[in-house]
């Protein structure tokens, strides 16, 4: 259940007893009513919502029984507003004036959200907001955060921004962090940040988009728009806000060369979600140039291996690992000036002899182990560990 909080507003419309506060046990609504939920971080490093955009979204809240909730997405998400429209004035001009004042109050409430606890847990806030969705109502979820999560099951710290989205979201799913958003419309202004959070590169934005597409697909949302109307941030100028840890936007560094082999985590390479497409081919060639130089004194020809985690279908994982090994071999051949046919390629899938166990006793995915198994190994000579 929500922890309800009354909001002091200019007109006081949100405090009317006739409107009432609804919880997750609300009665089944008629198909003609709307549930609109805003998830807002109100934290340092994120952008404040655009009042005009919020006002436009509120245009669907216009009949008795329509319902609005606002969720604060900080380290401990909670509800700051949960209100259902009462019977409205029958006169046209009075009705419009009432709705105009109500929407102004909601816009003010959304803009007034400020983080209380450090860090941002977007998935927990979405799950809390989904409790406000009533059976039979049309559901709209508006996520006014950058999409960069710094705590909880989908924390993107420690290089996880570039981890395989399927691994990340399976982990969230197993923790109970994916709500039922079947049929919901989702609007999320993804990747709009302010200081001290570094601006996202095109590659980082692609990685972030892949994560949230996977999340909302598994949640069952059917109309998902992650594109921000503008990339220009509206920084929150509030010295009382807690400090949120910036998410590193660069790919994590690869491991050291050892025994004429270098393990390159797929996050270090920067594959697009679920594919062998390279987000930054030039960056990959620079990475491989350093690997080739470190392997220069090693005997034998080049070998590129790729492996996968246990998440998903075994056959699909093997095919993906083959495609990723071939993609890296192609770039390696360009880098060192040889034919790709001179490079031995092995796509192990889940059969990589060096893999670690990434499933727990109940068959759940162990995220760090799964990430460790998503690697491409560049070396010389024969396979080994």
Would you summarize the structure shown here?
With 385 residues, the protein is an alpha/beta fold. It has helices spanning 51-57, 92-111, 122-130, 165-174, 202-219, 266-269, 281-294, 314-336, 367-373, and strands spanning 34-40, 67-72, 78-84, 138-144, 185-188, 223-225, 261-265, 302-307, 344-349, 375-380.
Strand order of the largest sheet: 3-2-1-4-5-6
In terms of DSSP E residues, the strand content is 5-15%
What is the subunit organization of this protein?
single chain
- Estimate the helix proportion, in percent: 25-40%
What is the first-to-last residue Cα distance?
51 Å
Mean pLDDT: 90
The number of helical runs is: 9
Rg over C-alpha atoms, rounded to the nearest angstrom: 24 Å
Q: Any low-confidence stretches, pLDDT <50, length ≥5?
A: 1-31
The H/E string reads EHEEHHEHEHEEHHEHEHE
Per DSSP E runs of 2 or more residues, the count of β-strands stands at 10
Shape: elongated
Structural class computed from helices and strand pairing: alpha/beta
Main pleated-sheet profile: 6 strands, mixed
Q: In terms of topology, how is this protein built?
A:
Layout: E1 34-40, H1 51-57, E2 67-72, E3 78-84, H2 92-111, H3 122-130, E4 138-144, H4 165-174, E5 185-188, H5 202-219, E6 223-225, E7 261-265, H6 266-269, H7 281-294, E8 302-307, H8 314-336, E9 344-349, H9 367-373, E10 375-380
Parallel strand pairs: 1-2, 1-4, 4-5, 5-6, 8-9
Antiparallel strand pairs: 2-3, 7-10, 8-10
């Amino acid at each position: 259940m929500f922890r309800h909080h009354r909001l002091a507003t200019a007109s006081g419309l949100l405090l009317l007893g006739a409107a009432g506060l609804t919880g997750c046990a609300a009665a089944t609504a008629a198909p003609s009513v709307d549930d609109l939920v805003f998830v807002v971080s109100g934290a340092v490093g994120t952008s404040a919502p655009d009042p005009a955009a919020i006002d436009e979204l509120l245009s669907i809240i216009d009949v008795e029984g329509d319902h609005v909730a606002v969720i604060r997405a900080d380290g401990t998400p909670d509800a700051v507003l949960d209100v259902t429209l009462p019977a409205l004035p029958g006169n046209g001009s009075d009705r419009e004036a009432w709705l105009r004042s109500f929407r102004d109050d909601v816009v003010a409430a959304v803009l007034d959200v400020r983080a209380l606890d450090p860090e941002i847990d977007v998935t927990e806030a979405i799950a809390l907001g989904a409790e406000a969705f009533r059976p039979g109502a049309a559901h709209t979820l508006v996520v006014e955060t950058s999409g960069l999560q710094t705590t909880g099951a989908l924390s993107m710290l420690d290089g996880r921004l570039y981890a395989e989205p399927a691994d990340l979201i399976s982990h969230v799913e197993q923790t109970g962090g994916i709500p039922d958003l079947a049929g919901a419309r989702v609007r999320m202004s993804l990747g709009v940040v302010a200081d001290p959070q570094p601006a996202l590169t095109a590659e980082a934005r692609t990685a972030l988009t892949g994560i949230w597409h996977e999340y909302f697909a598994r949640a069952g949302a059917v109309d998902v728009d992650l594109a921000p109307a503008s990339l220009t941030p509206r920084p929150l100028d509030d010295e009382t806000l807690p400090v949120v840890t910036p998410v590193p936007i660069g790919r994590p560094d690869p491991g050291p060369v050892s025994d004429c082999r270098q393990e390159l985590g797929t996050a270090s390479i920067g594959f697009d979600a679920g594919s062998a497409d390279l987000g930054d081919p030039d960056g990959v060639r620079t990475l491989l140039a350093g690997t080739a130089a470190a392997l220069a004194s090693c005997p034998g020809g080049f070998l590129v291996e790729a492996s996968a985690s246990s998440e998903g279908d075994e056959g699909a994982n093997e095919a993906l690992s083959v495609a990723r090994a071939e993609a890296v071999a192609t770039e390696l051949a360009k880098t060192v000036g040889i034919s790709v046919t001179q490079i031995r390629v092995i796509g192990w899938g889940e059969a990589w002899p060096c893999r670690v166990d990434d499933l727990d006793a109940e068959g759940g995915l162990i995220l760090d182990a799964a990430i460790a198994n998503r690697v491409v190994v560049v070396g010389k000579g024969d396979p080994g560990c």
